[in-house]
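The instructor's notes for this session suggest beginning with a concrete chain rather than abstract definitions. Hand out the sequence below and ask the class to guess, before any prediction is shown, which regions might be ordered.
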Amino acid sequence: MRSLPLLVASAVLLAGCAQTSTRYPSLLPRANEALDFTEPERPVAQATPDAGLDAQIDARMTTIEATDRDFQKAAKDADAKVARARGLAAGTSPWLDAQTALSVLDGLRSRAAVTLGELDQLRIERAQSGQPEYPALQAAMDRAGAIVAGEETRARALEAAIAPAS
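After discussion, reveal the predicted structure:
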């Protein structure tokens, strides 16, 4: 008998959960679906001429070009010394002369790379202050990067020419 009231109460509760409604959610667009979330067109900021920045760029490019001229002269000297040292044992006089010439190249290459880093720092400072890209600075960085890469390639080739056979 006790289970009968419990059974009746369960039936009443379950009957309350059942609905026979034929109402379904609308498939019409909702108000927020008509909103436009695309980014608005923003004009690209143009860099204005900056005489101070142009002077800094010119000074650094002058340094890189002078360093590259010195590097090319030193590379010719190193090339001759590496040719004399090729095939000789490490520690011989021609081999030491070639190593000395290669260290001069490393110093010059390092100076050019530091100057390229200074140009990059100018670009970073402009970006951090929210200024647009400066075309003359980017062109200088491209030119300086090509010079540094060329020096790196030439120095590595000379180093490989007198490297001991593995």
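Then share the key points. The two ends are 98 Å apart (CA to CA). The helical segments are 3-17, 51-85, 93-128, 135-161.
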